[in-house]
Amino acid sequence: MENLSSLSRFAPELWLMAGILFAFLGSLSRKLSGGPLIFVLLAITAAVGQLGNESTSLFEGLIAADGFTHLFRLFFLIVGALTIVMAAYSKELEKQGSEFSGLVLTVVLGMMLMASARNLLMAYLAMEMVSIISYALVASLKGNLRSREAGIKYIIYGGLASGVMLLGMSFLYGMSGSLEFGAIASTMALKSPNTVTLFISVVLVLAGLGFKVAAVPFHMWAPDVYEGAPIAVTAFLSVGPKAAGFALLLRLFHSTNLAEGELSLIWPGLIAAISVATMFIGNLTALWQDNLKRLMAYSSVAHAGYLLMAVVLMNTAGMTAIVFYLFAYLLMNFGAFMVISAVVDQAGTEDIRAMRGLWKRNPWLAIMMGVFLFSLTGLPPAFGFIGKFYLFAALIESGWIWLAIVGLLNSVISLAYYMRIAKVMLIDGTEGEMILPEGRLVAPAVTTTVVTVLAGLTLLFGIYWEPIRVFAESTFGLL
Fold it and tell me: Is the pTM of this model over 0.70?
């Protein structure tokens, strides 16, 4: 009976599994190619229907069904839906069948399990599910050597990070005698573990999660992988697995209290150092990039640094700021990548010069791209500004004023390369070698519509953000 009850609370994941099965069956028939998106919408409906349900554990305590789970379910399902739509109108992926959508949905399922895991084994298996399928997505461009190279690099880095994280988890299991997060917290509170061993285990686990969120010094895979992957996959990796890594990090360290007790004096300084290094390396390296995907890769690294500032706090204000910023990042980053995809499809190059004269070629897309760039920088009245405001406010309220100043300084640095794209779009002429066919960029109507919606939400939530704030805050009372 308990498992039947668990299945009813597991409905969004079940709909997603049905969509995955449908997608792989659909690869046998082009007539079924649009089906996976329908199942994602059904999963979103089921996830919305479970908002407000009381917290419980499912399947003998392996996963949780609480406010935190419900929030990230919706987040990942939206990411999956946007990726499928983006891939459907990408020339790079026009030869892919519905099995591509099946792979995307499989990663989405893994990310949902990462956010809801309450057991070390479940967390590890979910993370591997995300990683292994992501390797295939990166290398999915048939006959493209750069895509294959990116896939191989991703596998090598990912395999190493996975092994290191598993070693750290084995240390935690050895010290606590349990795989369940709550039991680990109880055991650690009753007996004082060796501080050195505990610190080493935490660092090893952070290495695995640091790889997933592309934090320094575990970020080195990101530029090459983002550059070699299809643009739709690059957009997906820059938002989905990154958010899943932060979700698992928050649940793991919040539920096990590992950041308190013996490590309470070490944890803040360690995370702050990683955050500062991640912001500076991401932003400063992005200044020199001419390839749009590599530039956005280092931008993604920098944004991981901003999010890590709030991880330093490990309190309700910090965790709320992380979720708030992730929603802002979802809108502005996916929107920017969709514009880049439309430009690259017609220009045939990923060089930043492909954006030259976009204002004349497609004024509407240029305006939308400007909205996303301002938001990514953190300028008002965009959603990104409010996201950074909550990050900095949480730090200042907790006494981390210097870290907030460092974050603000990095936002100023990021202005240089984001506005460089804007300059190429709005000021540079269309003369030169990077000229689009017939001088005008004609984007698919669906792409233009989705980009417009994302830009509209970016501006709307930059003016009226209260619903997102309330939604984010309500989840942590149930974590």
Answer: yes
